[in-house]
Amino acid sequence: MHGRTPPSPESPAAVRARERRSRRYRRDLRWSPYLYIAPFFLFFAAFGLFPLLYTGWAALHRVELTAPTDMEWAGLRNFTRLLGDDFFWNALGNTFVIGVLSTVPQLLMALGLAHLLNYRLRGSMFFRVALLTPYATSVAAATLVFVLLFGRDYGLVNWLLSTVGADGVDWENGSWSAKLAVSTIVVWRWTGYNALIYLAAMQAIPHDLYESAALDGASRWQQFRYVTVPSLRPTILFTCVVSTIGATQLFGEPLLFSGSAGASGGADHQYQTLGLYLYEQGWVNLHLGRASAIAWTMFLILLVIAAVNALIARRLRTSQ
Amino acid sequence: MRTTIRGPRRRAVALAAAAALGAALLGGCAEDSDTPAARDSSGAAAKKTTLTVGVFGVFGYKQAGLYDAYMKLHPDITIKETSIERNENYYPQLLTHLSTGSGLADVQAVEVNNIAEVTATQAGKLVDLSKAPGVRKADFIPWKWAQATNASGKTVGLGTDIGPMAICYRKDLFAKAGLPTDRDAVAKLWAGGWGKYLDVGERFKDKAPAGTSFVDSASGVYNAVISSSAERYYDRDGKLVYKDSPSVRQAWDAAMRAATGKLTARLQQFQKSWDQAYANGRFATVSCPPWMLGYIKEKSGDQGRDKWDVAAAPKPGNWGGSFLAVPEAGRHKSEAVKLAAWLTAPEQQAKLFTKQASFPSARAAYGLPAVSGAKHPYFGDAPIGKIFAAAAEGIPDQVLGPKDLTVNQNITDVGVLQVDQQGKTPEQGWRAAVESIDNALDQ
């Protein structure tokens, strides 16, 4: 067929065996990688994709947890009703406010801490581990401690306030004070985590840049401002996106902050986030359809955030 | 060329290893299911049935030794209990498991707040226990039996405990405020109505020791009053009528009087600050079903010993209690029915009361010495068996509805709380509660 003679005479059986082997080898080379990554995709399909699609399907129906298999088609009703749902808008607003209150100081503090840790200092390993400790603490444990700290009658924060002559604050019941308290928990947990990410990126910055900057007479602050921050831009963007996604999904801290009160997020829903509202609709009020619609709305919000982020990233790249 | 050979060979080794592992696993499984049968045929040991019991919180069956006693009576049965701490996590899970027919325990507990919904929507998935062997309807308090029975007479749950309410009060604080401390005299102060209870509260407030309040929370007052009325959120035809219900109005007004009259310590029950207030003796009274006694003892600790006492409530009401149900999808239905019947029989309920202070829903148990003679040393040897049995007899026949829990929770955690803790007016609080309930009930 090829018009070429085989290099050496072989028995037909040997040729067939060799061909079979090489065919098997080619098939192996071609399909094995898919097999190796298959577990991930199978698990993703079962626990990621399927729930996502099923939630979307449920969002278009009237479904109750008392009878999850009885689905009654409702079209976009679950979505359109959110437009007129005061509790949804309240939760969206709370999520945004708590998100800003926690993300902005968190990232600024993380940047500062990373800069300090980037200096040569004694026991730097200790400080790095210490920074990661809050992140390693469980949400439940951390929040329970913060609930005690922010207690109205016996809280440490109010006691500190009283030592300087200020009145105690009823943290949970105030609209802003409750949001601030919840944000504090988030800031406490995630600052160190972000600081370590910044630190890793800082250590990748060539030292020559600092040396030449120092030779040019730049102060430490100027070095930070003109060398460190510009080099960290992609990292900062990354942490912004991750923190924003985290803030949109905020759930554990406000849930536990209300103690046993459940998912209402305070007497006036003053710290009910979208995550909490979703949980309340689905697992307290048992309306799976409505809860699914909220879940998909949150998903769409995250997509918008991702799009805005991509836009900013492109702007930054072209401006450089 | 080397790799072409080594590749498949290595893979063959891996495959062989995987096959061996798989075979071992399969073998393990097979062995598991084979052994009892094998033993059976040889007659060496009887076949063991494992019954699972799903509960929330602490039911106390294990602590009171009831499982051990049952296993001793039935050597062929092993009992395993799984517990989820909070009912708000347990209940949704129970509903999903019932709908899929998988993941269920052989016996499942149901809280009184959910029983109406379970009876109305899940009866088809639960076994009718009314004619189960060993179950006598006459043993149970009639309303408890009725709560788990649907219109066609199917009883889906057997009553475990109930929560007849008394009032726990601090003798030391009462004495300092110039009030009587003897439990009969205290009960007489407010006997007959919740208005009188609040009158006592006002007398207490006039001379109260600094930093103490008459009652822990306005929600506590609301719950106590609403729990002592027969019709609450639904009428007898099953219609939701909470907006115009006279008993809701009465309970709401009492709670508002307590909140706006500064009779409360502005706490929320079962939160950390509530526990701390117990430890610091910050309030003088709390409505008190039997299961609360243990809670008070734990949170008030040693310095609260002989300071607390128990007196009859102004009107008897019920707070809490559970049922045991047997899912149709269970693997060992008949054994599960027998276990549920045994666990809820009067003798076992009496034993549970002695060990765990869960008050029997089986009326037949009240005459047993374990109940009628019960005294609580922490509460000044109060004759709790007599007090709670008397309260239990006076509890009105309550009409429950499927969404009782939702309505109640929004009234207390949104409406009452806004007035008690955020200083809003009663009108604002009521409006917020109604809005919240409307949103929660709207599918």
UniProtKB/TrEMBL annotation, chain B:
Signal peptide location: 1-30
Transmembrane segments: none
A Pfam family this chain is assigned to: SBP_bac_8
SUPFAM superfamilies, alphabetized: Periplasmic binding protein-like II
Key word Transport present: no
Source taxon at top rank: Bacteria
UniProtKB keywords: Signal
Protein name: Sugar-binding protein
Species this protein is from: Streptomyces chrestomyceticus JCM 4735
